[in-house]
Design brief:
Distance between the termini: 44 Å
Keywords: Hydrolase, Membrane, Metal-binding, Metalloprotease, Protease, Transmembrane, Transmembrane helix, Zinc
Helix content: 55-70%
GO molecular function, one term: metalloendopeptidase activity
Number of helices: 12
Strand content: 5-15%
Number of strands: 5
Shape: globular
Cofactor: Zn(2+)
InterPro entries: Beta-lactam_resp_regulator, Peptidase_M48
Pfam families: Peptidase_M48
Structural class: mainly alpha
Length: about 325
């Protein structure tokens, strides 16, 4: 059962890496990448729990740590005070420290980002703009949704002067899409998963792809408001040259070319069978992710019970 579950997790993690999702519905693609990220994070958590709670109770761990320096080096008559089980305990607990350090790093990063956004809106604001936005100075072109608990629309002076009316309206609705679709919570989830799974190969790419499909979703939101796709593509191209790290700009960072190509060529949806298969896979992936997340307390309880019944480490008394 455990082997089958592990195979399902590996398949769900690898699926978005091997199946082309660039022209799949943005919500479906984002869900698949989000599931893969969540499973990566859970893998890190389960590995840490195993090393801390389960491994010390195994015979293998006892055999690997049942040594003392004064028995390995008989000539050393002085007790050095370094026992194998102490080293084993340190090795077992080390993953927890890594996860805690990653969580602390994420928290400080969020605090710095919040301060940058607050500084952008309060210090750099020069007035009120269209759609109840905040105008900030500077020649760069960017339209952004800034903030987390109460996001505000931010428009640069450069955007007001370099974008025509239709481009500006399309860009504003793109950012409204980020706000209305609550993409900020998805980004927070992705960054939390990145913090927990930073040592698993491919995690950074998965976060990048999830952000890419969130941008596609916001593009679709803007087009659903009857905006011209060419105007939105033009606004994206103009905004690409401005990448303000404090906000999520209209340009969206990397993968801009793919977004523009999709806008210019029109959205080509996959066949009904493939679309149904991907939607079903995404739904099953969410169920798998939620089920594994719900099992974490039970795993901790089982690990504590096994740890309480583990043999007491030997004393290095020579």
């Amino acid at each position: 059962m455990i082997i089958l579950l592990a195979l399902l997790v590996v398949a769900a993690v690898l699926l978005p890496h091997v199946v082309p999702l660039r022209r799949v519905a943005p919500a479906t693609a984002a869900t698949l990448w989000g599931v893969a990220l969540g499973l990566r994070a859970l893998t890190s958590v389960f590995v840490a729990l195993y090393l801390v709670l389960f491994l010390p109770a195994t015979a293998l761990f006892d055999a690997m740590t049942h040594w003392c320096w004064h028995t390995i080096i008989p000539i050393a008559t002085t007790h050095l005070g370094v026992a194998g089980h102490r080293v084993g305990d340190a090795v077992a607990i080390f993953p927890i420290f890594l996860l805690a350090a990653s969580a602390i790093s994420l928290t400080f990063g969020l605090v710095r980002a919040a301060r940058s956004v607050r500084r952008l809106i309060t210090r750099d604001a020069v007035g009120r703009g269209p759609a109840d936005s905040v105008i900030v100075g500077g020649p760069d072109v960017f339209v952004a949704a800034a903030g987390f608990s109460n996001p505000r629309l931010v428009v640069s002076a450069g955007a007001l002067t370099q974008l025509d009316d239709e481009e500006l309206a399309a860009g504003i609705d793109h950012e409204h899409g980020h706000i209305r679709r609550r993409h900020r919570f998805v980004v927070l989830y992705a960054e939390a998963c990145r913090a927990l799974a930073r040592f698993i190969p491919g995690t950074k790419h998965a976060v990048s792809q999830l952000r890419f499909h969130l941008e596609r979703d916001a593009d679709a939101w803007a087009l659903a408001r009857q905006h011209d796709r060419f105007a939105l593509a033009s606004a994206i191209c103009k905004a690409t040259i401005s990448q303000n790290p404090a906000v999520a700009p209209l340009g969206g960072g990397r993968d801009v070319r793919d977004r523009v190509d999709e806008l210019l060529s029109g959205h080509r949806t996959p066949g009904a069978l493939r679309r149904s298969a991907l939607n079903t896979t995404a739904a099953l992936g969410v169920v798998l992710l939620l089920g594994l997340t719900a099992s974490v307390p039970s795993v901790i309880a089982a690990g504590q019970q096994q740890a309480n019944g583990a043999p007491v480490p030997h004393a290095c008394d020579g």
